[in-house]
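Let's do one together. I've listed all components of the complex below, 547 residues spread over two lines.
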Amino acid sequence: MFNFPSEVFRVSYGDLCYMKHNLVQTLVSTLVGPLLYLLAFGYGMKAGDTEYIAYVIPGIVAISSMNSGFSSSSQKIVIQRLFHSSFDELVLCPMHTSSVIFGKCMLGIIRGLAGGIIILGLGMILTPDLFVDYRFILALLMSSVMFSLLGVSAGLLANSTPTLSLFNSIIILPMSFMCGTLFDVSSLPEIVSYIVWALPLSHTTSVLRDAASGSAVDPVSVIMIIVYAAIFYAICYIVIRKKLY
Amino acid sequence: MDNIISAQGLAKSFGSLKAVDDLTLYVRKGEIYGFLGPNGAGKTTTIRMLTTMDPPDSGSVAIDGFDTRKDFIEARRRIGVIQQHHSLDKDLTVKENIYHHALMQNIPFKECKSRVEEIIPLMELQERMNTKAEKLSGGWKKRVAIVCSLIHRPEILFMDEPTTGLDTQSRNALWKLIRSINRTGTTVFLTTHYIFEAESLCDRVGIINKGKLIVEGTPQELRSRIGDYALVVTDPAGEESVSYHSDLPAARKAAQEAPGDCVISIRPSNLEDVFLELTGRKIRCSTSRPRCSGSPTAICVI
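Okay, and this is what the predicted structure of the assembly comes out as:
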């Protein structure tokens, strides 16, 4: 049995060094978007309604984990593949494919977790209706891992930076607004609500919101997150082993 | 002698272009093997298949007996690769790049530091350890890439056009280093389109053209195939014709029969001649040898 955690760390060492060099920029870019959402929707639209802030904060945490997880993983891989040619070095090393995939996810996972926890901490100051337990952290971790895996697969498949931007515009951005993060999707037309339900962010939002409000977590959403993570992992595995990138 | 690289029937196509076509080659343990060919001949595609970076469409590769499809991890443990284009992470320092490579080669954490300290003086990198890779010149990047590829003490070092883009001083230093690496028992497989590099550095040379290995042997064996001396006859219109002869007296005798208004020169044949004779194409003009500037009817022996 190979030492999976050790291999994951070895693969992610370069990305962790990069994060160390750019810690301030990384944190600022992680937080600016979620803070703007909080300001615009929590205060601009609802004038500081604490009940709505308690509702919207888990949604913003879900958006933050998605954006951080996806963009960190996908951008770094596209740069390493297309501009630095250093992704080939990873493929050349005697590492298991799973270690390479999760190693490349690490930066996204750390950013997703850090961003989510900071936003939640801020939310807990603003409203007393939020609390954190192990379920919330677990849900945040699952969300960050799933979207980092999506980022790795997009980074491996994109043949140019415009392709990656297009993916961002047609998949990530619509999900940010449509998946029950900032408003209740029950008001949407029935057909649209089915489509929204099938998207991964709907399930991470649902699980995070349940956990942050102390309600029972919907097991279907947990299963959906695991299924999505498995699909994204499989895409990464096939692409790396078949060298389709 | 044992073969450390065995490639059989390799083929790779990109759309309708056959980049490598039924290529079989064997590299012996401890030798410097040069893979010579013009641009677009299939050198890089071949090296990518040999180093597990690209799977062949058909055929097989074994590195030290390990099949690169089934036992790719064992095969990768035994190889170091210096790619044609620098593959360093430009956002990281030299030190971080080297450590990252050491870690990715599964070198135990405790051993990484001693390995790095052992290898950096060889390339005189001590002063640049904290410099970001993006700020290094081409020559220094090449040095870092070499350190990265040697950190796990590979049995085979693959180098894809290692001296392309280097000045003469850096190139000579790199040749010296390649020889010293080889003396420690490391097999070296390098691709090049520089004739002089292949002739002076390699124990054996394989010449590739249009994806096919057309000939293989020691530089001397290959030259002897066509004749050790080349007689070049240039007519007043500047048209050159070349004939090959087994020795100098034979070449001189043939020169006497050339028309009187031609420029004639006799020189030792080289791998460019071998390639030209076998394919009718030139690999690349080598500027490493002096050119004949003889007067009409003079026989110039270089």
